[in-house]
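ok so dumb question maybe but i'm new to this and my supervisor (M.) told me to 'just get the structure for Citrate synthase' and walked off. so i did the thing. is this what she meant?? sequence i used:
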Amino acid sequence: ETGMITIDPGFKNTGSCESAITFLDGEKGILRYRGYSIEELAEKADFLEVAYLLIFGELPNQEELHKFHNDIKGESHVDEEMKKILDGFPKSAHPMGVLTSLTSALIAFNPSSVNVTSEKEMYWAIVRILAKFPVLVSWTLRKKKGLPLDYGDDTLGYVENIHKMMFKRPNHKYEKNKVVIDALDKLLILHADHEQNCSTSTVRMVGSSHAGLFASLSAGIAALWGPLHGGANQAVLEMLEAIEADGGDTKKYMSKAKDKNDPFRLMGFGHRVYKNFDPRAKIIKKAADEVLGDLGVEDPILDIAKGLEKEALSDKYFVDRKLYPNVDFYSGIIYRALGIPTEMFTVMFALGRLPGWIAQWREMRLKNEPIGRPRQVYIGHASREFVAVDKR
Ligand code: SDX
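this is what came out, is it supposed to look like this??
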């Protein structure tokens, strides 16, 4: 007999592992990657540096960073056959569904990345997916827009190349825009890891069966897609656009959000761990003002978002439940200003979260964690005899 099994829905009070990667303090609104504050990293580091820090545990020196980037550049080829899989999707396919499929399809073209056991094999599987995933992201976007697919330009920085792959037009020179590249870099850093959230726990769970890194990441992308998780950034913009279409009537949506019988939630608000401001939301809100200002974009949606936040923070329902804006509340406003279509927002979240998923998968594998297999409390029928179909 296994003794008392306690059920903990959503694992609200269950620790699944020990980890040295990311530290959150939900009460104080603190977030650190390997001990470095998110505020410092967002200001002073770049995304590839942060990816290295999360995965290998230390900030890289010049030589380490240069080698890491070179190794990634060398692996940025995606087999042309993969385009046939992409061609199989209708233009209406949601990019997150396309990317879960393309990420697992990548396994077939990179067999050496499947049964990795040594650190060296893990390193190359990690380099391959960091190199190829941005290509898949850009192909998914460009396919939807009917643009030619492309591998980008490896003379550029990692994030600059991502932006170029996504937005380069065939008929005019790619405009390098520092404001846009820096905003993208900062957003990717802010999404890079967040300890045992739903999608990361999924990556660890699938990885614990030794299904391989790419399969684990494909599962993580699927989990992130949900509107309660990474899909919230798309849902926030759809909510703000609905409020705008409703003449900016935030009160109506606030009462819907508080109505127990109405499934509508104030998307981009609330968090399982943060019972204070999500530190990422503070940085993104400030960046939204800066980026829209620098780009000369006047977006009434930003004012609606700020109005909604102000109302919610002085509303008893939200204050009592300690519901604050989370990472998804303002991020979509910047993505929109950068010309990223709404249904690609969660893909941008996945692109940012990739290093975190990888770091958590690597930590789990290097520690030889046991396969994840929770117990249950059985509440079904007691034993009963089979009845032939003509007797039922
Ligand atoms: C991310 O885990 C992570 O770290 C995730 C993430 C990451 O970086 O990986 O931070 C990214 O997923 C951010 C969250 C994005 N999701 C949304 O913005 C969707 C809206 N938020 C909610 O669905 C909700 O707040 C969750 C899912 C984020 C958290 O849900 P919990 O912890 O399970 O809390 P709960 O559903 O039990 O809510 C507690 C109470 C309930 O009311 P009561 O039953 O107590 O009366 O607060 C209410 C909820 O109804 N509530 C909300 C609300 N969020 C919670 N009511 C209205 N609007 C909301 N947004």
